[in-house]
C-alpha cells in the first residue's frame, strides 16, 4: 500500500513537471497513473480492514465458545452438587 502511495506521489511530481514543460499529454498521463495508484492503495487498505475485521470476529467467536463451555461446565457442577444435596 505504501509503495502505491509513493508511486502516486512520484507520478504527481512527473505530472507537474510535464505541465510546467508544456507537455499536457504527458501531464495528463502521469496524473491518471497517480489516480490509479491511489485507487490501488485504497483497495489494499480496504482489504486489510476487512481481513482485520474478520480476524476480530473470529476472536469474538472463540471467546463466545469459551464462555459457552464454561457455562456448560458450571451447569454440570451445579447439577452434581444439587444431586449430592438431595441424597444427603
Description:
This protein is an all-alpha fold. The protein has one domain (2-87). The chain is 94% helix and 0% strand. It is built from two helices and no strands. Helix 1 runs antiparallel to helix 2 (24-87). The longest helix has 64 residues, at 24-87. The radius of gyration is 30 Å and the shape is rod-shaped. It starts with a helix and ends with a helix.
Summarize the SSE layout with pairings.
Blueprint: H1 2-20, H2 24-87
Helix pairs in contact: 1-2
Amino-to-carboxy terminus distance: 69 Å
Strand content: under 5%
Order of helices and strands: HH
What's the gyration radius in Å? 30 Å
Query: What is the 3D shape?
Result: rod-shaped
DSSP helix fraction:
over 70%
Keywords:
single chain, 88 residues, mainly alpha, 2 helices, 0% strand
Quickly describe the structure.
By secondary structure, this protein is mainly alpha-helical. Helix content is 94%, strand content 0%.
Amino acid at each position: 500500500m505504501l509503495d502505491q502511495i509513493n508511486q502516486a506521489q512520484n507520478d504527481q511530481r512527473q505530472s507537474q513537471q510535464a505541465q510546467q514543460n508544456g507537455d499536457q499529454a504527458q501531464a495528463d498521463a502521469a496524473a491518471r497513473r497517480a489516480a490509479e495508484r491511489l485507487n490501488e492503495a485504497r483497495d489494499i487498505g480496504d482489504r486489510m480492514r476487512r481481513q482485520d475485521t474478520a480476524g476480530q470476529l473470529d476472536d469474538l467467536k472463540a471467546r463466545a465458545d469459551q464462555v459457552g463451555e464454561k457455562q456448560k461446565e458450571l451447569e454440570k457442577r451445579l447439577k452434581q452438587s444439587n444431586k449430592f444435596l438431595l441424597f444427603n
